[in-house]
Write a structure and sequence with these properties.
Chain lengths: 388, 229
């Protein structure tokens, strides 16, 4: 207790530096921690980008209000209605792929049923057997259900696998949120035509997350014409490159730049902390010496330095903890790529782990400075105390 | 039995290139109520001897006892408590807490003392200050005081726990003649009136003359002991 109060007094005498360092460290480190927990998003985006690029996957984007109508808008004689067009595109030799999330309300243990069709199957998951009409798998958290079966639309499907934890079954601009991929049943359907009746699905369910693979310009423009005609919505097709060009600067690239900046700033801060802390301890050396002369033990002297080192980092530590516990932060909008909104960011174990690591570095460094300073002090003290 | 008894004490300082034999088989006894001066040229081992008696540094060989009790087996905690209760240190540079008040400086040994009650602290601090004639300066910062006043604060601190042993290393080294005389008077009276054992290291013969006994050191040994006045 005595040493704690002494350390608090020591800190108050350095209040200016404590506040200046504390505020800077709080801002830089908490931003760093938030950015690091955004790495996962970068990585999943990067995975998408390379996948979409390599497979020349384009994304279909629908904007604005509309109403779906299965009538043929074109005057052309040979035109087939939109449903038929989509059905064909999503089937075995088609060029379309898509996914849809059907809310299941927890029935049979599933909150969501996620249906992945056509060319999207191989983008979403490696190793889906070629010969299956419907390949059923559960989300990572339900892996205990492998071997049982799921009943959909009156038909039973054996559950053969669990998908990886980080599966994402959307598109770059419209990704399925991570919460959707928990407590979920995944149905992978390569050939829409052969399984649609069994599952009771309709092709327009996949419109919002549609991709088109290896298509020529003619096919793309037909796709745009048909969809906008049927839905009344403005329809565009983006390649991964288009996406990057539009969002890269404000999204992924920005985050990477931010990370690099905060990493450098954090290093500078830790260096500043080490220098400041040893300067403050050195400045109090006479105090320690005089206290030691009149009865302070080695342990008390060390504790006083340690408390000082810990107290010096209290402001950033408290700020970081509050920041991680209070789930408010900036998130990128799924519907408007590259735009960020203030929103609830759920407390995540990754974020907590990064925070714990940050605090460990902060206090570990501070404690190390205290130990080194104490050892130096004792070496000097035993020789010089009476000689001054 | 002497209050302080150092016998056959040796101390070598080892540096990278050479070893200095600072003390060679030195002995010294000091009784209660006695003021002893230690004089000798610079580098003759005066401070080393004082620091060994004050349990600040350990001798390489030889023994130091207090009322026949050896502290050589003490751990750091016990040693710190022993030093706190028994020694009042006074140095040339005063060794004060510069940013603190006179009151806080005099209180220092009390906060580490386990046998003196907290309720007694204030009275003891006032009494010690009164005795040194600085009771009107208790709330002043020591950094604002003159050299003579600072040394009086240091002496008040050295007696606030009724420490039976006062060790003063060149206490008058940075004082003018007037302050020097008053500091020496005080130190000698601590021995004669309070019954403390007082050891004063000095190179000032006029200071040494005022003491009961003068020990002359040369090349790490005590040359003349017991030159009774
Ligand atoms: N910490 C130390 N390291 C090396 N040599 C020292 C140290 N302290 C003292 N000495 C040497 O030991 C000798 C005695 O020093 P000291 O006891 O301070 O003498 P005095 O107080 O009489 O001037 C001197 O030669 C001094 O240089
Ligand atoms: Mg000396």
């Amino acid at each position: 207790m005595k040493t704690l109060f002494q350390a608090i007094r020591d800190l108050f005498r350095e209040l200016g530096f404590v506040l200046l360092y504390g505020l800077l460290a709080a801002i830089v480190l908490s931003s760093f921690i938030n950015s690091v927990s955004g790495i996962k998003r970068i990585l999943s985006t990067a995975k998408y980008v390379s996948q979409f690029k390599n497979g020349s996957v384009d994304m279909v984007i629908l904007e604005g209000m509309g109403s779906y109508k299965n009538v043929e808008p074109s005057e052309r004689e040979d035109a087939v209605p939109i449903d038929a067009f989509l059905r064909e595109g999503l089937s075995k030799d088609g060029r379309l792929g898509g996914s849809a999330v059907v809310r299941n309300g927890g029935a049979d243990g599933f909150d969501n049923v996620i249906i992945v069709v056509g060319r999207m199957v191989d983008i979403a998951l490696d190793g889906v057997p070629e010969d299956r009409q419907v390949y059923a798998a559960v989300s990572h958290d339900l892996s205990a259900m492998i071997g049982t079966s799921a009943k959909i639309n009156g038909n039973e499907f054996p559950i053969e696998a669990a998908v990886p934890k980080d599966i994402t079954v959307g598109t770059l601009y419209n990704r399925t949120q991570s919460t959707d991929t928990k407590r979920a049943l995944f149905l992978f359907v390569r050939d829409y035509e052969s399984a649609s009746a069994k599952l009771g699905i309709s092709p327009q369910q996949f419109l919002m997350k549609l991709v088109v693979v290896g298509a020529d310009e003619e096919y793309k423009s037909e796709l745009i014409g048909r969809i906008s005609g049927a839905t009344g919505m403005h329809t565009r097709i983006w390649s991964a490159d288009d996406y990057l060009q539009l969002t890269g600067d404000s999204g992924t690239k920005y985050l990477k730049l931010k990370l690099a900046f905060y990493a450098a700033a954090s290093f500078a801060l830790i260096a500043a902390m080490i220098m400041n802390l040893s300067r403050i301890i050195d400045a109090h050396e006479n105090d320690y010496r005089v206290n030691r002369l009149f009865g302070a033990t080695k342990a008390q002297t060390f504790l006083r330095m340690l408390w000082l080192a810990i107290g010096f980092n209290m402001i950033p530590a408290i700020y970081i903890v509050i920041k991680v516990m209070l789930p408010l932060g900036w998130v990128s909008r799924d519907d408007r790529p590259g735009e960020f909104v203030r929103a609830i960011v759920p407390y995540s174990p990754e974020k907590a782990a990064v925070m714990a690591a940050g605090l460990a570095v902060l206090f570990g460094t501070a404690a190390a400075v205290a130990v080194i300073e104490f050892l130096g002090f004792e070496r000097k003290y035993s020789k010089e105390i009476g000689r001054r | 039995m002497s209050l302080i008894s150092a016998s056959g004490v040796s101390k070598n300082y080892k540096t990278k290139d050479y070893t200095v034999a600072a003390l060679k088989e030195t002995s010294l006894n000091v009784e209660k109520g006695e003021a002893v001066a230690v004089i000798g040229p610079s580098g003759s081992g005066k401070s080393t001897l004082l620091n060994i008696i004050g349990l600040i540094i350990k001798p390489d060989s030889g023994s130091v006892t207090f009322d026949g009790e050896s502290t050589s087996g003490f751990g750091d905690k016990r040693l710190s408590a022993f030093r706190n209760a028994n020694f009042g240190y006074i140095t040339q540079d005063f060794a004060l807490l510069d940013g603190e008040t006179v009151y806080t400086n005099i209180r220092l040994p009390l906060i580490y003392n386990k046998s003196i009650k907290r309720s007694e602290h204030k009275k003891r601090i006032f009494d010690a200050a009164e005795r040194m004639g600085i009771s009107d300066k208790l709330t002043r910062r020591v950094s604002r005081l003159s050299g003579g006043e600072r040394q009086r604060v240091a002496i008040a601190r050295a007696i606030v726990c009724d420490q039976p042993i006062i060790l003063a290393d060149e206490p008058t080294g940075s004082l003018d003649a007037e302050n020097r005389d008053s500091v020496v008077n005080t130190l000698v009276s601590l021995a004669h009136d309070n019954g403390s054992a007082v050891i004063i290291v000095t190179h000032d013969l006029s200071v040494a003359e005022r003491c009961d006994r003068v020990i002359r050191m040369k090349d790490g040994t005590t040359m003349i002991t017991g030159s009774e006045k």
